[in-house]
Write a structure and sequence with these properties.
The protein is of the alpha+beta class. The structure holds copper (II) ion (CU).
C-alpha cells in the first residue's frame, strides 16, 4: 500500500471535489482518498500492485477533470504540512 499526493486540475468547488473523490474511491485497489480543493491535490492511499496512477488519472479524466500521474510527494507527512502552510500563506497574500 502506498500513499501519494497528486495534483488534480480543473476543480472549482466542493461539488468538483466530491466528483473527483467518488471517481477515485470507487476504483479497485484504492483504499483511501482525500481531495483538497485549496491545494488542488488528492492524497490517495492505494495498492500499487492493483492499480497505477495512470488508471487513477483515467477515472479522474472520465469524471471531467485532470490529474498528474507524477506524485507530489512520497509518504511524507512533514511534506504535507509544509504544503498546507505555504497554501495558507498564498491565500493570505491573495486576500482570501
Ligand atoms: Cu465544481
Amino acid at each position: 500500500m502506498v500513499k501519494h499526493s497528486f495534483t488534480v486540475k480543473n476543480m472549482m468547488c466542493a461539488m468538483c471535489v466530491a466528483h473527483v473523490r467518488k471517481a477515485i474511491e470507487s476504483l479497485e485497489g484504492v483504499k483511501d482518498v482525500n481531495v483538497n480543493l485549496a491545494s488542488n491535490s488528492a492524497l490517495i492511499e492505494y495498492d500499487s500492485q492493483k492499480i497505477t496512477p495512470q488508471q487513477i488519472k483515467q477515472a479522474v479524466v472520465s469524471a471531467g477533470y485532470d490529474m498528474d500521474t507524477e506524485p507530489l510527494s512520497a509518504n511524507s507527512d512533514n511534506c504535507q504540512d509544509e504544503k498546507k502552510k505555504s497554501n495558507g500563506l498564498l491565500r493570505k497574500l491573495f486576500g482570501r
